[in-house]
């Protein structure tokens, strides 16, 4: 705490991202990055953006992100006016919380038990841990809804009065997904309350069905996407939202009250190229899916509990060994062998680990390490 901080900053409990080590070389299976390089067309487009016209970096970038939005619109079969781009989907999510959730009158934090939920937004108890951070930042009350005993979202639990709903599909860190029909039906029930459903599709390209085709009849549905995972561009920081034009305009109002140029020229050029090279990405992501299925079966064979995943990670519970118990001890044993995975020290999931899917070679080393740890007990 500092005397210079105002009460808003004092109240924040910021999100803690997964480790990006600099000291030694690890096999990184902790932040859901794609193990394959981005499309060569992305690198070409960035190089061209750097040099063309004698170097246009002296000029501001296009605040409307026109080329990127057109590329996303072609890829998803929507109009450019239905696309909003931002500096990573985290930024898009932050704007969406600010634009569509909370009235400004309520105060943030978990909603009191006696609250009927009318003003509080809803998200799952086990989900992306940035959601409560954004809610607190904007002073939006929230209530978490427990996943069922299989770690599935039960959409019917969200059909109650609320300030809006957000969850990822597939959910993170569980990897489980819901069919779009169930999501669209929930959007309809929220539309009756004039509330927004934000669907975070960060991992949808790894085998789940996107709800984007349902945008047309659902003006209160905003889908949020990222190039960090499926387009191998976590380092470029590009995300986008697809939704009805009223929602997109709301996001633009937020951005233009904050920073008109959230995406730089290099990011805009690289992202448009990535969105235009579906063939390359379909191929590498098919490989990630194949590896995920192989790793899931191998871990189940070693006695792990494996939640069926539609994402580029698996959520697993290691078998308890004589010298270790719980996810933290197993994560440490892997770290000692040069492999980073993600452990969340939270109720219900402290025994679990989230393992990002790497290359086949990386996953073979990971599986060998798991075999050693389960045999030796740590
Ligand atoms: N949503 C979910 C569910 C995520 O796991 C992540 C990655 N941490 C993001 C959004 C944000 O991704 P980015 O900001 O890299 O686009």
Describe the overall structure.
This protein is of the alpha/beta class and 378 residues long. It has two domains: 13-37 and 279-376, Aspartate Aminotransferase, domain 1; 40-276, Type I PLP-dependent aspartate aminotransferase-like (Major domain) (Aspartate Aminotransferase, domain 2). It is built from eleven helices and 13 strands. The strands form four sheets. The chain has a five-stranded mixed beta sheet, with helices on both faces. The chain starts with 6 loop residues before the first helix and ends with a helix. It binds 4'-deoxy-4'-aminopyridoxal-5'-phosphate. 4'-deoxy-4'-aminopyridoxal-5'-phosphate binds at residues 88-90, 128, 168, 172, 200, 202, 226, 228, 234, 239.
Give me the secondary-structure topology.
Layout lengths: L6 H5 L15 E3 L10 H16 L10 H11 L6 E4 L1 H13 L8 E2 L10 E4 L6 H8 L2 E5 L19 E4 L11 H12 L5 E4 L20 E6 L12 E5 L1 H11 L9 H11 L2 H24 L3 E3 L5 E5 L8 H11 L2 E3 L11 E4 L3 H17 L2
Helix pairs in contact: 2-8, 3-8, 4-5, 4-7, 9-11
This protein binds 4'-deoxy-4'-aminopyridoxal-5'-phosphate (PMP).
Number of domain modules: 2
Percent of residues in helices? 25-40%
Q: Architecture of the largest domain in CATH?
A: 3-Layer(aba) Sandwich
Shape: globular
| Main beta-sheet annotation | 5 strands, mixed
Which strand order spans the largest sheet, edge to edge or round the barrel?
2-9-8-7-6
Q: In percent terms, what proportion of residues is strand? A: 5-15%
Bound molecules: 4'-deoxy-4'-aminopyridoxal-5'-phosphate
Remind me, CATH topology of the largest domain?
A: Aspartate Aminotransferase, domain 2
Distance between the termini: 38 Å
């Amino acid at each position: 705490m500092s005397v210079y901080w105002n009460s808003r900053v004092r109240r924040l409990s910021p999100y803690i991202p997964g480790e990006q080590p600099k000291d030694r070389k690890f096999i990184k299976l902790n932040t859901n990055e794609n193990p394959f390089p981005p499309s060569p067309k992305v690198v070409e487009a960035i190089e061209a953006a750097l040099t063309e016209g004698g170097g246009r970096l002296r000029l501001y970038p296009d605040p409307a992100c026109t080329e990127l939005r057109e590329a996303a619109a072609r890829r998803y079969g929507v109009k450019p006016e239905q696309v909003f781009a931002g500096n990573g989907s985290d930024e898009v999510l932050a704007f969406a919380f600010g634009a569509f959730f909370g009235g400004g009158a309520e105060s943030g934090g978990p909603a009191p038990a006696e609250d009927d939920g009318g003003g509080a937004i809803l998200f799952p108890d086990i989900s992306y841990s940035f959601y409560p951070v954004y809610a607190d930042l904007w002073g939006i009350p929230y209530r978490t809804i427990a996943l069922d005993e299989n770690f599935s979202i039960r959409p019917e639990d969200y059909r109650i009065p609320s300030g809006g709903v957000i969850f990822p599909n597939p959910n993170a860190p569980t990897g489980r997904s819901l069919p779009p029909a169930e999501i669209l039906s929930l959007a309809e029930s929220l539309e009756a309350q004039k509330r927004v459903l934000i669907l975070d599709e960060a991992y949808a390209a790894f085998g789940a069905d996107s709800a984007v085709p349902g945008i047309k009849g659902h003006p209160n549905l905003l889908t949020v996407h990222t190039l960090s995972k499926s387009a191998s561009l976590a380092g470029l920081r590009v995300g986008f939202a697809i939704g009805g034009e009223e929602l997109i305009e709301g996001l633009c109002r937020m951005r233009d009250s904050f920073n008109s140029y959230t995406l730089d020229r290099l990011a805009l050029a690289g992202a448009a190229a990535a969105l235009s090279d579906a063939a390359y990405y379909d191929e590498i992501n098919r490989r990630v899916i194949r590896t995920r299925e192989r790793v899931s079966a191998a871990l189940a064979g070693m006695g792990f509990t494996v939640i069926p995943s539609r994402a580029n990670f698996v959520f697993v519970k290691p078998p308890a060994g004589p010298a270790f118990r719980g996810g933290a001890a197993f994560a440490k044993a892997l770290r000692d062998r040069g492999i980073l995975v993600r452990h969340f020290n939270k109720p219900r999931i402290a025994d679990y680990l989230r393992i990002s899917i790497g290359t086949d070679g990386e996953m073979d080393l990971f599986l060998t390490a798991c075999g050693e740890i389960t045999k030796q007990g740590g």
